[in-house]
Design brief:
The protein is α/β, with parallel strands linked by helices. It is built from 38 helices and 17 strands. Helix 35 packs antiparallel against helix 36 and helix 37 packs antiparallel against helix 38. The longest helix is centred in the middle third of the chain and has 39 residues. It holds the Pfam family MptE-like.
């Protein structure tokens, strides 16, 4: 029995087959892909030049029996690029045993899933991520997946790479963070550290935007006086709708979209405390009417301004709020709406949010996580990172005796977070006066006031240093440009010594601010470096590299100087705001420039007895109207993005992917979400499509064809191609070449989209009408004259029907365009031989 099992296992990939071009492949992996057409022709048709971009790391699922890496090597690898092929372990073993991966270039490796991360590290995947040059592909055998092992492998790698892209993009966020930090500088007055241990022994509930928030809010309202409420800013709309104001509200996101989803917080009273990262979007920070406590440092360089403070840990605002709650001294923290996963029918956020209003999300990936209710739920790459971070964070917090609870069965299961239903949570009956506690802590501290000249002085010192760096960078560019001759060789080594002196000045005299410029412009500096340099630099390339280096310095310095100049103006404007009779033109100009129109109302609120001239009053009213208009606008960029995630084209793409990989339960969940879409009329053909897919997966072809015919019968159906393709596929699988359904479906498809003409030609040929098939191929080639693969198929059809002169003309035409086409050369030799037999 064991011997038989072993024998079967070694033959899972099928027997080795050799095609007419001398290429060996495993039949069960590639079937007839290489039967009549060479691998070179197929690879060129599928990939074109996409696999030959320089300085790229290419992750490829499957090797096509070793033919794809061989093809790359024979074509010549581009400079600085690397290739990681990933195969199922059993396939890789057979490839090695049959010597199909021999003598590969060191820039190409073939590994299993367990080994790929180690290879990725050796190939410096981090560096490729930084220059946005990590790409993934499926080989032909992975696309077809006759072996039934490639689909999940492909999905897994896609998810891992998506997480990598997300992680490294976040780590390169320094430029955006610095921009926001300097924009917020004038408003970053009170550090969050002032409330250290202010709430020892108390219970906090942290409200986030996950779907389970809906089930928690009634309980929170009922126990409002017994809880201290922390809320992420994005749920402000939901809280306003039920007249519930939090005690603390949090934001960390630097993007404008964050303002779109959080702007309702600006309609709260001045009682809640706003706790925000130094890099939070300034339109939230500058227009907040209550007390604000910032996280992190005030300036992005070493300075006495940077008081001791809490860091704004991430990756999500929830992680930040949890960390702050612990540092504030709470000994029990209840997480509500902290799902870190989505509902199975595709809802990603609680009711009332833009995402929920837009409808279920149709572009969810295959990524899933286990919930407190012991079932699997869909999630996303960033939330997986948040789950892992939360588990580590919770471990550290709970080790101090603080309990973290999540009361939702629908939330992701997280280590060190206790699942406890709301009904089982016991609360202290004594009410808590948050306002009094906060006022006491802040009053006991010593902090600077708005008119402190230290900020402006610090900014001007940085301005002086960075101006010096800018001058050095400009000098270096001039020297570097003149240092080389017209032939690209270094002409004057004195200039080289001048550059060395400039570099020493940058690193010695302006060390701190030079580092700041580099950190700020890190993306431009990264472009200079390459993970691998497979050839020595020419003098011309060295010159270009030098220019790029000092241009990065120059451009970074110019951008920072603009930000610092703006920060000085903003600080001066804030000082002017403290006066009862300010320079209104200065204030209005600053508020308009920053789009902080809400400061007009705040100024009037803070100066109730000010005498405002009538002409000035008009502009105040205009600014306040602008602010009100922005707050009431629902057609935001974020809403458009949310609707895009719930769009029917997304649904079509995801449903096709789930069907291809036979994900029956996920298709049912998708159908459930579709039934809740706000536009049920437009959803009708998509319901038919999903029902058809599900019927096919349940081997109910009759029901499937009925569903697809319903799509065809619908007027102006957006899914006509999909329905025709499925009917054609089902019909062809009956192995009846006279099948009318297949013939008519492919005929219609070829009229809708000429890409389907070759498929129509094939079924016409199989039905015995070779000359009609030739006409169809000619029609196709007239529209796609660059498709060598189609031309080879037509020439082969000529040969099969003994129309040798036409076949020869076609091969000559192909070889005129692509004289190195092995397929055309070999087939023409066959043609010559056939002609001698007649």
């Amino acid at each position: 029995m064991d011997e038989n099992s072993s024998f079967i296992a070694t033959n899972d990939v099928g027997p080795i087959k050799t095609n007419v071009f001398g290429e060996k492949f495993f039949y069960n992996l590639n079937r007839d892909s290489f039967g009549k057409i060479s691998s070179q022709a197929l690879f060129e048709a599928k990939f074109g030049n996409t696999l030959f971009q320089s300085n790229s790391l290419n992750i490829i699922i499957g090797t096509d029996s070793g033919l794809l890496p061989l093809y790359l090597q024979q074509k010549g690898l581009p400079n600085g690029s690397r290739y990681i092929f990933i195969e199922p372990e059993s396939v890789l073993e057979q490839l090695i045993n049959h010597q199909l991966l021999e003598e590969l270039d060191p820039a190409i490796v073939c590994v299993t899933l367990d080994e790929w991360e180690e290879s990725a590290k050796l190939f410096k995947i981090q560096d490729y991520f930084y220059i946005n040059s990590v790409r993934s592909f499926n080989s032909l055998c992975a696309e077809d997946d006759n072996y039934n092992a490639y689909a999940e492998l492909s999905w897994h790698i896609t998810e891992m790479l998506a997480q990598g892209h997300w992680h490294y993009n976040v780590s390169l966020g320094n430029e955006a963070f610095t921009i926001r930090q300097l924009a917020n500088l004038a408003d970053n007055i009170l550090p969050a550290k002032l409330l250290t241990n202010a709430f020892q022994g108390k219970t906090a509930v942290l409200l986030a935007g996950g779907p389970s928030l809906d089930e928690a809010l009634p309980w929170v309202q009922k126990h409002r006086q017994q809880l201290i409420i922390f809320a992420v800013s994005r749920i402000s709309r939901q809280l306003k709708n039920i007249n519930l104001e939090p005690d603390f509200i949090f934001s960390v996101d630097p993007t404008e979209l964050s303002f779109d989803i959080s702007k309702e917080m600006l309609t709260f009273s001045d009682r809640p405390i706003f706790i925000y990262s130094y890099h939070t979007v300034p339109t939230l920070v500058s227009q907040w009417r209550g007390t604000g406590l910032y996280l992190g440092s005030q300036v992005p360089w070493k300075s006495t301004l940077n008081q001791a403070n809490f860091d704004g840990v991430g990756p999500t605002v929830t992680n930040t709020a949890l960390s702050v709650a612990h540092k504030f001294g709470f000994n029990r923290i209840i997480l509500a709406g902290v799902d870190l996963c989505f509902t199975r029918d595709g809802y990603t956020h609680a009711a009332g949010s833009d995402e929920h209003i837009a409808g279920p999300r149709f572009n969810l990936t295959s990524l899933q996580t286990e919930t407190n209710g012991d079932f699997m739920a869909p999630t996303s790459c960033d939330l997986v990172a948040a789950i892992n971070t939360l588990a580590i964070q919770a471990k550290a917090i709970t080790a101090t005796g603080c309990q973290i609870i999540n009361p939702s069965a629908n939330a992701a299961k997280v280590d060190n977070v206790t699942y406890m239903p709301l009904a089982d949570i016991q609360l202290d009956d004594n009410p808590i006066d948050v306002t009094a506690i906060v006022a006491k802590q802040i009053a006991a501290s010593s902090h600077r006031s708005y008119n402190d000249p230290v900020i402006i002085g610090e900014l001007k010192r940085a301005q002086f240093q960075i101006n010096a760096i800018l001058r050095l960078a400009k000098d270096a560019l001039t020297i570097n440009e003149s240092m080389y001759s017209a032939q690209g060789a270094i002409e004057n080594y004195k200039d080289k010594r001048k550059l060395d002196k400039i570099e020493k000045k940058l690193n010695r005299d302006h060390r701190q601010y030079s580092k700041l410029v580099k950190r700020f412009g890190i993306r431009n500096f990264i472009k200079i470096t390459k993970p691998f340099t497979d050839e020595d630099w020419s003098a011309e390339e060295a010159k270009e590299m030098g220019n790029a280096y000092y241009e990065a310095y120059r451009d970074g310095a110019i951008a920072l100087l603009k930000l610092i100049s703006d920060a000085i103006e903003r600080a001066q404007s804030r000082h002017e705001e403290t006066r009862d009779e300010p320079d209104f033109s200065q204030l209005f100009g600053q508020w308009r420039k920053d789009r902080s129109f809400g400061r007009a109302g705040l100024w009037r609120q803070n100066h109730p007895h000010a005498n405002i001239p009538e002409s000035v009053q008009t502009e105040f009213n205009e600014l306040e109207d602008l602010f009100t208009s922005i707050l009431s606008n629902k057609n935001t960029g974020h809403m458009a993005q949310a609707k895009n995630h719930a769009s029917f084209p997304m649904l079509k793409k995801r449903s096709g992917l789930l069907f291809k990989h036979q994900k029956t339960q996920e298709l049912k969940d998708l159908l459930s979400g579709l039934h809740k879409h706000q536009d049920q009329t437009a959803a009708v053909p998509y319901v038919y499509l999903l029902n058809g897919y599900l019927a096919e997966l349940q081997n109910d072809t009759e029901t499937a064809i009925t569903a697809y015919h319903n799509i065809i019968d619908s007027e102006d159906s957006p899914l006509l191609q999909e329905a025709l393709l499925r009917i054609a596929s089902i019909s062809i699988n009956t192995n009846n070449v006279d099948n009318t359904n297949a013939y008519l479906s492919l005929q219609c498809l070829s009229q809708i989209n000429p890409v389907y003409l070759p498929f129509y030609a094939e079924i016409v040929r199989l039905r015995g009408d070779a000359f009609a098939a030739i006409d169809v191929y000619n029609h196709y080639i007239s529209q796609f004259p660059e498709d060598t693969l189609g031309q080879i198929k037509l020439a082969t059809l000529y040969m099969e029907n003994k129309i040798y002169d036409a076949a020869e003309l076609m091969f000559d035409y192909i070889l005129t365009k692509t004289p190195d086409s092995k397929a055309a050369i070999d087939l023409k030799k066959q043609l010559t031989y056939l002609k001698t037999l007649n």
